[in-house]
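Need a sequence for this fold. Nothing fancy.
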């Protein structure tokens, strides 16, 4: 592990100025970055601590505007926030699964997104909840769909000097449900062999699906939105026939690799299984039912 400088930014403008330096990287939770530096998987000349910037630590919710939370908010705070658990339970699902208790107390959903691991738990949930990533940099502020944020394993759309400031999610709709599920060999502190997030909104009359989104983890170089799976759901009665069609589209769209955690064939199979199960849970939530803990 090579030496690096450290600076603690007090404002977003401070952070953007510091991040313009060659080799500068933002530090929020550090649960991925510090490990990667020790293993020489990433380089850094300067670590810019953003954990003291008030704007990056705020959580706000308004029924008409939706949810906004800073990129440095800890996963524990997301998982335990009552309005997130009530209105955005798929996001709480994902935040609750990131590492063990000590990791969640430090790790951030924003960091999970910026680390851009194909197996990241938070990203599929952000995708199906239509999250926007608010980024500030030398050229100003821009808004990016969560589905378009990651460009490859460990790489994102962020340009030199840019900082992920917050994430914004639209208001939770009525008759809407979402769920994130993953498969791991053990019960905690493991990386997903495959993961799936699903969102459905039912029409006002009946159980026809009016809107849907499906996203996968650990089956492609980036967390993957599956438009074909959503198309297989929209306009159809919510039930096993539609869910199996969506699961088939997920299997067709998966582009997994074989590694020490699982084979490509296993991951492809799990993509379909998890989508079907997540859709069943999303439907129950859309109908106002509570899921078992």
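Here you go.
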């Amino acid at each position: 592990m090579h030496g690096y400088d450290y600076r603690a930014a007090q404002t977003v403008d401070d952070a953007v100025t510091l991040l313009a330096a060659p080799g500068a990287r933002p530090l929020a939770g550090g649960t991925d970055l510090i490990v990667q530096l020790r293993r020489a998987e990433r380089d850094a000349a300067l670590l810019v601590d953003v954990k003291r910037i008030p704007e990056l630590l705020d959580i706000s919710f308004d029924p008409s505007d939706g949810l906004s939370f800073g990129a440095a908010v800890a996963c524990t705070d997301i998982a335990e926030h009552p309005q997130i658990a009530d209105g955005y339970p798929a996001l709480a699902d994902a935040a609750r699964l990131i590492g063990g208790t000590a990791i969640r107390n430090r790790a951030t959903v924003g960091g999970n997104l910026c680390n851009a691991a194909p197996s990241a738990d938070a990203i599929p949930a952000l995708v199906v909840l239509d999250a926007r990533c608010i980024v500030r940099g030398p050229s100003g502020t821009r808004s990016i769909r969560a589905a378009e944020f990651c460009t490859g394993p460990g790489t994102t759309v962020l340009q030199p000097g840019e900082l992920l400031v917050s994430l914004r999610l639209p208001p939770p709709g009525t008759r809407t449900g979402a769920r994130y599920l993953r498969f791991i060999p053990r019960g905690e502190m493991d990386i997903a062999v495959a993961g799936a997030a699903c969102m459905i909104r039912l029409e006002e009359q009946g159980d026809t699906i009016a809107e849907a989104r499906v996203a996968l983890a650990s089956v492609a170089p980036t967390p993957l939105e599956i438009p074909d799976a959503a198309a297989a759901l929209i306009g159809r009665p919510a039930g096993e026939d539609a869910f199996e069609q969506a699961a088939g589209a997920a299997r067709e769209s998966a582009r997994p690799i074989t590694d020490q955690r699982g084979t490509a064939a296993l991951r492809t199979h799990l993509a379909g299984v998890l989508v079907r199960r997540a859709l069943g849970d999303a439907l129950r939530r859309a109908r106002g039912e509570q899921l078992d803990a």
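For context: The longest strand covers residues 194-202.
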